[in-house]
Design goal:
The structure is a homodimer. The first copy, chain A, is α+β, with helices and mostly antiparallel strands. Chain A has one domain (7-199): Glutaredoxin (3-Layer(aba) Sandwich). Chain A has helices at residues 17-23, 26-33, 45-50, 57-60, 62-78, 94-106, 109-121, 130-139, 144-150, 154-169, 191-199, and strands spanning 7-12, 36-41, 177-180, 183-186. In chain A, β3 and β4 (183-186) form a beta hairpin. The model of chain A has no long low-confidence stretch (mean pLDDT 94). At the A-B interface, α5 and β4 of A face α5 and β4 of B.
């Protein structure tokens, strides 16, 4: 059963600093705008690879990388958020993303997503580490053993591949992206505009 | 003589669509914030070349290019501005930028900059065309013959090279960029934040 009313898709990548910013504020802004949010985790790696990049553009272009860190520091401070760049950047987000897809089916994707982003960008933790994921799942009172065992299962892998292919098909080239109908909005700084678009009568 | 009070440097590239957006609104926003603006035209080409790009990233990455056009259409519509992508993109901005540097010395840089951007992104004109530049200079009641003859002079060339080297040195990697003291802000969507930073007590 799908709720009526305006909807916005929130496409995010766990390794993405700007996705962290959006994940921490989208629910409050969407509620105020009367818009429902569909959380869509995906992997940017294959999309970057298709355009010839083997890592984040923030690593490929050092001036852009230095700028991104300062931009995040300023934006996070304005919003009362903490921000640290983890020692390894970008992080390997494969396991966390597969878990989030399961969370989408089971109703815990939103708190799990926020917990992963906080571990990564507030505490600098390594989100590829199964022990960290185990701790996060338990903190949400979830059956960690069952969920961790599903990460490597073929159906989980296939779903993430489909999700990422869908992102590419729909024109997503960075994260976060917001989609409403045929309209794509890229970047945390387009969140308000995307919500206004979704809420139009 | 330099005016007292807060200042913001506006670094722009004539070929840049987002620089067009900022050029059309920075004066009104800066006046409201009590901030003086220093207009700093420069060339992005050499900076892109230094990071391995031989054209605009909007051409190198087609999904990003398609998005940019739609993003500009939406933003321009919201602001009551026209927007067309010129037939050749990015345009060769060398001559217009050298003229703008002279305009900085002589006090006509702001109306000239707006006239160039309007010709390019409202009317789709070719800003590399000396006849167009002649028309724009005359429309501002300037001595077009004298100014066009200065475009290829060694001191004009040297000044633009210095300006572009300064941009690179100060961490500029895209346009528009705004600089206040040691703080760099990138993108038309950071203009309000940059002005607020410059206006801080």
């Amino acid at each position: 059963m799908s709720a009526p009313g305006p909807k916005l898709e929130f496409w995010y990548e766990f390794a993405s600093t700007y996705s962290y910013l959006s994940a921490m504020r989208i629910d409050a802004l969407a509620a105020a705008a009367g818009v429902a949010v569909a959380w869509k985790p995906f992997l940017l790696g294959p999309i970057f690879k298709a355009q010839g990049w083997d890592t984040s553009p923030f690593n490929l272009y050092p001036a852009k990388g230095r700028y991104m860190v300062r931009d995040l520091e300023r934006l996070a401070a304005d919003r009362g958020l903490a921000f640290v760049l983890p020692a390894v950047f970008p992080q390997n987000s494969l396991r966390a993303t597969r878990l989030a897809l399961i969370g989408g089916d089971e109703g815990w994707i939103v708190p799990f997503t926020r917990a992963v982003f906080a571990a990564e960008f507030v505490h600098g933790a390594d989100i590829a580490d199964t022990r960290l994921l185990d701790t996060l799942l338990r903190s949400l009172h979830l059956d960690s053993e069952r969920l961790l065992s599903r990460i490597a299962q073929p159906d989980t892998k296939a779903r993430l591949q489909q999700r990422t292919a869908e992102a590419q098909q729909r024109g997503v080239f960075g994260a976060p992206s917001f989609i409403c109908g045929g309209e794509l909005f890229w970047g945390d700084d387009r969140l308000e505009q995307a919500l206004a678009w979704a809420a139009r009568p």
